Amino acid sequence: MADTRSSLNFRKSATKLQKPKVQNLEEEYIHNLQQQAYFLELELKLLKDKEREQKNMFPSDGLENGPLSENIIALKAKYKKLQQDLEKNIGQLSQENKSLAVTFLTLEKNLKKISEERAQAEKKYQEFVVYSRGELDRMKKILHSETNNKEELQKRIIDVAREKELSTTWATELKQKFNKQDLHITKTQQKLSELEEYKNQVVEEKNRRIIALQEETNKLDKAIQDNKTLTNVLKEIEETIKTIDELNIEKDNFTNKVRVLEFSKDLVDKTCSQLNSEKRQLTSQLNELKNEIQKDKAYQETLVAKRLKDLDSKAIKNSIKNLDVSRKESAFQSDQYKQKYQENLLLIEERNKLNEQLEKDKTSMAELEDEHKRLSEHVKELSGEMQNATFMFGQLTEKFSAMSKEREKVYEESRKVFKDNSELKSQLMYLSKKLEMNDQLKNLNIEDLKTLNRSNLQVNDTLENLMAKWETIQTFQKTQAF
Asked: Please, where are the H alpha helices in 226-313?
């Protein structure tokens, strides 16, 4: 009964040891030891059953069996060795439990410290990434705005250069026109000089003819006074009329030349400043000439009127009609001259407008040149700023590359720390399980080892009794053999 109880207690302890799930080598090792103890208990039970059978077979003789005694001794030694190994393993596990507890606390502190360092590193990395992205976006915006400003300035410079080129072309054309007009003015001045000389010649010729006409008139008066015949007077009047006709022809020629001069004036440069004064001089001279002609006409008309008082003939009337016609033609030509003069005034006004426009164009050209200079300086400044921005962008790129390398390094360190943390977590889990196992072993030592020791003592006593009986059986068999 005592053996049965010890076996039951040992089996209960074995079943308690079988309950924890085997997950690692230590648990498997303990489980194997428990299985071995359980199997030894079963063997011991079988041996006890065999001993009972042998006792039943030999109830009174007390004979011993050699092989059974040897097996019992071997089982006893094996059981003692197993007990010693268990006690040794329990002590080692207790020491390992203590060292693992200390290691667990150290690892837990290191893990907490590493987690804090990792959190700080991740925070710094995120701040660095945000700062780098902000700087990169800012530099991209600056570069984009500077590129747009540069393109706008280049377009503006191209437009200014185009306007300058057009202005230069227009100024060249104006200069050529001015040169042509200067040439025309020179030619006109030459023509005016020739006309002045011709006018002087005409005036001198007119004066000579007037003097001749006065002489002829005096002669006619003398002839009238001398009571010459009417025929001679008429001849002289006809000659006088011819002279007047010649003067009208000369006047027409002079008027035609004036028209030629006006036509030449139309070709004169609209921007020449001396043309106005020359035209005024010419106008005054023409007015003087016109006044002189009108005076001559009035003088001739008075002479003719005087003669008409004395002479009454058809020829004289015709001459008077011709004089009226000539006077009307002179008035018509004078009106045309006035019209030409107004046209010349309009041309002078247009020339003044062109001069004002030219001054405005020169001012605009100067402003465009100043604007071009200013834009060129601004482009130089922008080029300098662009170089500085490019240099800063290069530095930021290098800094970003270095920060990227640093980030990769931090990432590698973080990954390594994460790996170490994973390993530490696995070690902590292993140690935790080992501590749990040690706690279970402690509980086993406290609760079950006493019963195991008692059962072991009982087993030892039983084995000793069996060995003694086995020896007596062997002695009995030997005596039977003899």
From this structure: 230-266, 274-310
